[in-house]
TrEMBL record:
Binding positions (pyridoxal 5'-phosphate): 118-119, 255, 319-320
Family: Belongs to the class-III pyridoxal-phosphate-dependent aminotransferase family. BioA subfamily.
Major location (coarse): cytoplasm
Name of one Pfam family that matches: Aminotran_3
Gene: bioA
Organism lineage: Bacteria, Bacillati, Actinomycetota, Actinomycetes, Micrococcales
N6-(pyridoxal phosphate)lysine modified-residue sites: 284
Protein name: Adenosylmethionine-8-amino-7-oxononanoate aminotransferase
Length: 437
């Protein structure tokens, strides 16, 4: 048995966790193993506790843990090779995964570039757009997006994340200055002629027109803004930005790192908007949470433009672990499960359960909104979430959650049973009631 006291002491003194202070850090929970939708925790006193993971490990473990099909894919690939460089070499897992992604996405997206993570895939997408405009001689270097978004923690993605309400405002003045339209009105099903939508569209078109000659591409998360605030917006928002880009010679980049592979109910959120991007970023759930892997898909037109002599002749990017064979093999097995398990039925079940299970939170004085989209359930508070207290309260009820800002939310694995989903919802509602009232 692990010496949990010693390990946590070393963790406290030497490890730096995500979005945390090295000076003052709350002790993390120690995970000993995971299986199905449960994390097995080990407490310092030696006792154990199993809790339901309501977060899918930051939205990627859509099939849960210790998945036999994914374990077998890993073992089979390890018997052949775990890694080989992709520069000048290729291999079957990368080719097969690219073939699958091309088949799953709109027909126009014919080129696949593998990256290490979602943030890096956005870096690559933005670099593609900039390099293309170098080749065409337009001199365009700015991006157009909407407030409330989040695209990653590396520098280019930070620059198109909300500069005021986002988590990277500290870097204002260092990051490139891009153009941000207002946060769209809330509601995936908001009518196109709704007054709020009409006003947003007018202001967005006016703002774009003022900067059109500088815009290399528009970039946004379709339907669901993830870490920027868990907001849902209408497909019309995606359509408006795509129309503006097409009208003015800019590219369309869709960031489906959080939404891809079924989370909002369709394989990709772009399907509800009927918009085909020039560049598409996918990641997170691609490997079912087993290894870090992302992909950037683009049109032949973009690929050839970036590869023109005037644009430099090659895309100047090449991660060491690009197209890692082990990750690609697991991703193929994960995509098999997405389809074999009928993800749309799974996510529809999550949506029904989350809608009914979280509804009682709407009656709490501390809650300003409760919203659900596909496999995403959100309780928005009137004040910043007391993260540690909420996590501990949910843990007492057998559920692991990770609130942030003013949001207590869940993105459970697709394989979560109705009974476990009910436990998740009850834990979230009761924890909010206990901690915030």
């Amino acid at each position: 048995m692990a010496d949990v006291d010693r390990l946590l002491a070393f963790d406290r003194d030497h490890l730096w966790h995500p979005y945390s202070s090295a000076a003052e850090t709350a002790p993390p929970y120690f995970v000993e193993s995971a299986s199905g939708v449960r994390l097995s925790l080990r407490m310092p006193d030696g006792s154990g506790q199993d809790v339901i993971d309501a977060m899918s490990s930051w939205w990627c473990a859509i099939h849960g843990y210790a998945v036999p099909q994914l374990d077998e894919a890993a073992r089979a690939q390890l018997a052949r090779m775990s890694h080989v460089m992709f520069g000048g070499l290729t291999h079957e897992p990368a080719i097969a995964l690219a073939e699958r992604l091309v088949a799953l996405t709109p027909p126009a997206l014919q080129r696949v570039f593998f990256a290490d993570s979602g943030s890096v895939s956005v870096e690559v997408a933005m670099k593609m757009a900039l390099q293309l405009h170098v080749g065409t001689g337009t001199g365009r270097t700015r991006f157009f997006t909407i407030r409330g978004g989040y695209h990653g923690d590396t520098f280019s993605p930070m620059s198109v994340t909300d500069p005021v309400g986002g988590m990277h405002s500290l870097f204002t003045g260092i990051l490139p200055d891009h153009v941000f339209a207002p946060v769209p009105p809330a509601g995936v099903d908001l009518p196109d002629d709704d007054p709020a939508m009409a006003a947003w569209e007018r202001e967005t078109r006016r703002l774009y027109a003022a900067h059109a000659d500088d815009i290399a591409a528009v970039i946004l998360e379709p339907l669901l803004q993830g870490a920027g605030g868990m907001r849902f917006h209408s497909p019309r928002v995606v359509q408006v930005l795509a129309e503006l880009a097409r009208e003015h010679g800019a590219l369309v980049i869709l960031d489906e790192i959080a939404t891809g592979f079924g989370r909002t109910g369709t394989m990709f959120a772009l399907e509800r908007a009927a918009v085909v991007p020039d560049i598409l970023c996918v990641g997170k759930a691609l490997t079912g949470g087993y290894l870090s892997l992302a992909a950037v898909l683009c049109t032949d037109e973009v690929a050839h433009g970036v590869s023109s002599e005037r644009a430099g002749g090659a895309l100047m990017h090449g991660p060491t672990f690009m197209a890692n064979p082990l990750a690609c093999s697991i991703a193929l097995a994960s995509l098999d499960l997405v389809q074999d398990n009928d993800f749309s039925t799974q996510v529809r079940g999550l949506e029904v359960g989350l809608t009914s299970g979280l509804e009682p939170a709407g009656a709490l004085d501390s809650v300003v909104d409760v919203r659900v989209l596909g496999g995403v359930g959100v309780i928005q508070l009137r004040e910043p979430a007391r993260v540690g207290e909420l996590a501990a309260a949910a843990m007492e009820r057998g559920v692991w959650v990770r609130p942030f800002r003013d949001l207590v939310y869940t993105m459970p694995p697709y394989v979560t049973t109705p009974e476990d989903l009910s436990t998740i919802c009850d834990a979230l509602v009761q924890s909010v009631a206990t901690v915030h009232g």
